[in-house]
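Give me a protein, keeping tokens residue-aligned:
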Amino acid sequence: MKQLKDRNLTQGSILSSLINLSVPIILANALQSMYQLIDTFWLGRLGVNAVAAVSLSFPILFLILSLGAGLTLAGSVIVAQAKGAGNQKNVNYSSSQTVFVIFFLSILLSFITFHASEPLMKLVGAGPEILGDSVTYFKYSSFGFVFLFMFFVFQSLMRGIGNVWLPMYIVLGTVLLNLVLDPLFIFGYGSFEGMGVAGAAISSVITQGISAVIGIGMLFKGKRGIKIKFPQMKWDFKWTKQMFAIGIPSSLEQSARAGAMTMLVVLVTSFGSEVVAAYGIGVRVLSLIVIPALGFSIATTTLVGQNVGANQIKRAEKVGDLSAKIAFFGLSGIGVLLFIFAEPITAFFVPNDPQVIKESALFIKIMGPSFGLLGLQQVLNGVFNGAGFTQVSLLISIFSLWMIRFPVAFLLSNNTSLDEVGLWWSFPISNFMAAMVGFIYYKTGHWKGMLVKGRHRLGK
């Protein structure tokens, strides 16, 4: 397949560009999710408590990672618009600045999270039976933040210029390696003693380190469409201000999602370890299924960004229209399949616990019908992000998660006979509200009007 770095994304078939961009992104995101799924699979063989310990760690880890992820998105948007404008010099400079800023941020976050691991796990309600394992997993995972952030930077910058296959190949290699290292470090082999929950985190850190070294090394060589340079890696406060103006709303949006997940975990823990494990399995299966929506969202961000940079606003809107249709109808179909096969899927992870299987399957069945709405919301976020309107995505997320999902989850689980099932129902309700608000704003055309007036143009 022809590499997209050799194609002009501001011309030609939108459908072809969208598919060629989204397919490798979807594959890469699916492979990255395999880290958690592989961990869950092997830890499930240790018991429900091991799965619950990692399930508690995941929302906090995601919350911390969201800051870096938002800033890498900002770098990607700036690079995409510079690429669309034909400004290779700015592509390279913006990439160098992104690597520089994210590197120092990742070191700071790694230090803070390592020393705050136990209070954070207690904050989300880790009981005595899982506190030790959850803290251990979290501490080891914090070591990998620098590696994880650096690969995120490489991946985002490559996506910004349309080179999406290379990151996918690297992710594939590291996931295959993790598939081997996970059981080795968890259970041991021969004279090599297994480390249980800690082993799962250590194996992930090793593979993340390898991917980061490969990715950043390629950026320095400059043979893949971007060349970063040490002389350009110094504080440029004007550029950093622009990056933060775009990235902070995106970071806050992802933080809002992670924060809502964390608060839901606090509610879930009040129902016991079995419900916590069911929630953890359901969320991981859900994260794998919604990856197509995220893939189309990221592809949409790149396409919209490059077309905005080329001042082709109408074409950018056509990208959004087509991507929204594909995500809505495609994920609605996947939701139906997931509804049908919910129990066999959950049984794959915890084969010997009927109660956990039952709870996880019910969670997935309740979520399934709203997957098309979730896809619509994610794609529209991709449009807004590509155009530089990351504030819109932030406001929609705050509305759906903090004004709808969490209050509904709290009220239904604590004030009705639904109990923990009330938590599950909060997902489709909030997905519906978020999709409707995003769609209405998109159709008003306000974001197009701002672009036509010359605002939100980046990469100049």
Observations:
- The beta strands are 188-189, 192-193.
- Residues 10-452 form one domain.
- Residues 1-6 have pLDDT under 50 and may be disordered.
- The chain has one domain: 10-452.
